[in-house]
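User: I've been trying to design a sequence by hand for this structure and keep getting stuck. Would you show me what you'd pick, starting by listing the structure so we're on the same page?

Assistant: Good idea, let's start from the same input. This is the structure you sent:
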């Protein structure tokens, strides 16, 4: 009986194996405005959700042959899991450690109430998660959101959109209009003030 040995490179190609080293089991989002988690390893694939800066991702696999060039940066796509959702993220916006530029963050347990509508609020649940009781003009709805803080800026991720605020003392001051963070009337974006 004659044994035929297949070179390792060919065997890996035949099995569709995606490489991963133990040091890559967890990585962090380094993109200031967050990183899109997509349904496939492509910049044109549908977005599952927006993952905030410094969020920790569980790395399921990485395929070095699935590289793309986005914004002048070339990197492979990573198959990841974040808060129960799986998908693909572009590797150029991942880092082995969280950004050191991040501030201490918002106070966990803190409640920021809309200055124009006391029923609308943002409740900080953890260092990356919050609850938003948003004014939908015809009622209110509490939704889970994620956020990241960098310097005096905070980015709240709601679905596939990012809402930016400046942190000024005990207030979150909106940067432009925020349709998902209506505060006051449906068309207004007023500051949220820390009350707890």
């Amino acid at each position: 009986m004659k044994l035929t040995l297949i070179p390792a490179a060919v065997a890996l190609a035949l099995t569709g194996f995606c490489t991963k080293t133990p040091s890559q089991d967890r990585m962090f989002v380094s993109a200031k405005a967050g990183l899109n988690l997509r349904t496939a390893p492509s910049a044109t694939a549908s977005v599952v959700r927006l993952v905030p800066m410094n969020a920790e991702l569980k790395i399921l696999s990485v395929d070095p042959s699935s590289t793309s060039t986005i914004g002048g940066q070339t990197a492979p796509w990573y198959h990841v899991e974040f808060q129960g959702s799986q998908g693909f993220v572009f590797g150029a916006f991942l880092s082995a450690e969280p950004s050191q530029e991040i501030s201490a963050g918002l106070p966990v347990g803190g409640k920021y109430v809309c200055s124009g509508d006391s029923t609308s609020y943002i409740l900080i649940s953890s260092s990356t998660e919050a609850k938003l009781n948003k004014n939908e003009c015809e009622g209110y709805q509490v939704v889970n959101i994620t956020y990241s803080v960098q310097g005096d800026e905070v980015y709240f991720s709601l679905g596939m959109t990012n809402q930016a605020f400046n942190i000024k003392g005990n207030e979150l001051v909106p940067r432009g209009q925020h349709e998902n963070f209506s505060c006051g009337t449906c068309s207004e974006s007023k500051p949220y003030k820390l009350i707890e």
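That's my pick for every position. To get oriented when you compare it with your attempt: The helical segments are 8-15. DSSP finds one helix and 15 strands in the chain.
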